[in-house]
Amino acid sequence: MSNKKQLSFFERFSNKVTSWAGSSYAFSGAFLVILAWAASGPFFNFSETWQLVINTGTTIITFLMVFLIQKAQNKDSKAIQLKLNELIAADERASNRMVDLEDMTEEELDKLHKFYEKLSDLAEKEDDIHTSHSIDAAEKVDQIKKAKKSSPVKKVGLTGKKEDMLSDATGKSKKPVIKRNAK
Asked: Entry's InterPro entries (predicted)?
């Protein structure tokens, strides 16, 4: 792809260092430095200065690597989130509420996790393993259940009178429904 955007100096530098730091060459180099340091101990009489050299060097390298590793993880995490968001948006059965979950608080994520545990339990009870359960479908069912609980029930349609009918998504009538008395 020749249309790639020109990366900043820091971006190019951090990509190269991150890539190199995760290589076997970097590990081998670090191992050789430690061996050379240990082998030089007798020449320096294992002095405090000798110990200070390795302590200072490893501390500085570790401090800098923490930021480079975090930068790489942030970039990877963002790319993965975008790919998952695209998959969610592309699937008509998926709930678009799942897009940008990473912006939720820990408490909201815990609540959502408990909800999906309940959906998992429902799915296990289904005869058809391909039955889909989503947040949106579950909320609709929950609203219907709450509406049924909130009003007294009167059966209609079994006496030959005009039957109240539910309609499905296409607008076609399905079956007699239970009519609620409004108070």
From this structure: Iron_permease_Fet4 (IPR007251)
d(Cα 119, Cα 95) in Å, to the nearest integer?
13
- Entry pTM: 0.52
Position 98 confidence tier, pLDDT thresholds 50, 70, 90: confident
Q: Quick one: tokens of 71?
A: 């930068």
As a whole number of angstroms, the distance between CA 115 and CA 135 comes to 8
CB 25 within 8 A of CB 8: no
Q: Give percent of the chain above pLDDT 70.
A: 69
Name every residue whose Cβ is closer than 8 Å to that of residue 92 and which is 6 or more positions away in sequence: none
Whole-angstrom CA distances from 33 to 10, 53, 54, 74 are: 27, 12, 9, 30
The more confident residue out of 54 and 171 is 54
Cα separation, 44 vs 46, whole angstroms:
5
Distance, in Å, from the CA atom of 143 to the CA atom of 95, rounded to the nearest integer, reads 17
Q: What's the CA gap between 180 and 152, in Å, rounded?
A: 6
Check pLDDT > 80 for residue 69: yes
